[in-house]
Amino acid sequence: MKDKIILITGATGGIGKQTAISLAEKGATVIVTGRNKENGEKAIAEIKVKSKNPNIDLIIGDLSSISDIRQIAKQFKTKFQKLDVLINNAGNSLNDYKKTIDGLEHDFAVNVIAPFLLTNSLIDVLEKSNDPRVITLNGGVVPSKLKRDVLNSQDNFQGLITYCQSKLSMTILMFELAEQLKPRKISVNVCYPGHASTEGTKQINSKMLPLHLRFVYPIMWIYKFLTMPQTDKAHQKVARSSIFAASADELQNKSQLYIETNCKITKFPQPVYDLDNRKFIWNFVNNILKPYSNE
């Protein structure tokens, strides 16, 4: 990985930071994104010390903003001529409905729009790599069905359900994007990291659950406390799939893969294989982005 350039979103903490440390230890130049400059600079300093690699950089930007996503790509291109690996690690899960500056539901903006738009904004530099890889993280409880009315919706916002549906939508979208990018020889894969306590999981509370499940929240909280420790070791464990997807030689030119916690390649969630779902999500997202196409 010595000559590789890697961009990781949301890597100032949790799984993303451990991914950055591990890939930097392998000799890669690692650029991380974060929303807050002070926190970002602290994370960069820590990554440099732990990895013993000085080639770490920071780009500040808010992934809930279409303008900021484009600025992240622009800032990257002012410093680097190519991109070997893009890891769409950042995710978002809110208790209550929140509208972004662009008028989108916040979870949908960060979990679906951001990885899709950032990837597309960096295709030209990805194409300059001899082994370009795009990796996006799934998360939450994977739904067995796509609920279209929940997506980017204020009226049907349902906390944890909305989050999980946004992650399923992202997975469907990335599967379709992988198909679209095959002629350009850019690999697009999805990782399911497993469970660890991060800033996102710490925010989960009873309000995020459907009404009929809120009574079991105390049991869920105990389970989370016992099985999802927020430690570097725990984050290292759930970062394995991302690290594997980014660095494994045997994955060169391999696309449309779904990689689980133990670096095991497995089948995608069933809704991903539904052609109608893929067409719907592809059109849904591109229609949202259409008014911004000339910016």
What is this entry, summarized?
The chain is an alpha/beta fold and 295 residues long. The protein has helices at residues 14-25, 37-51, 66-79, 106-121, 123-126, 160-181, 199-202, 217-227, 232-238, 240-247, 275-289; strands spanning 5-8, 29-34, 56-60, 85-88, 133-137, 187-191, 258-259, 265-266. It is built from 11 helices and 8 strands.
Uncertain runs with pLDDT below 50, 5 residues or more?
212-227
Number of strands: 8
Q: What is the overall number of helices?
A: 11
By oligomeric state, this entry counts as: single chain
CATH architecture: 3-Layer(aba) Sandwich
How do the strands line up in the largest sheet?
A: 3-2-1-4-5-6-7-8
What structural class results from the helix and strand content?
Answer: alpha/beta
Give the N-to-C terminal Cα separation: 35 Å
The named CATH superfamily: NAD(P)-binding Rossmann-like Domain
Major sheet characteristics: 8 strands, mixed
What is the highest CATH level, the class?
Alpha Beta
Net shape: globular
Instruction: Provide mean pLDDT, rounded.
Output: 89
Helix share of residues? 40-55%
Element string (H = helix, E = strand): EHEHEHEHHEHEHHHHEEH
CATH-derived topology: Rossmann fold
Q: β content, as a range?
A: 5-15%
The domain tally reads 1
| Rg over alpha carbons | 18 Å
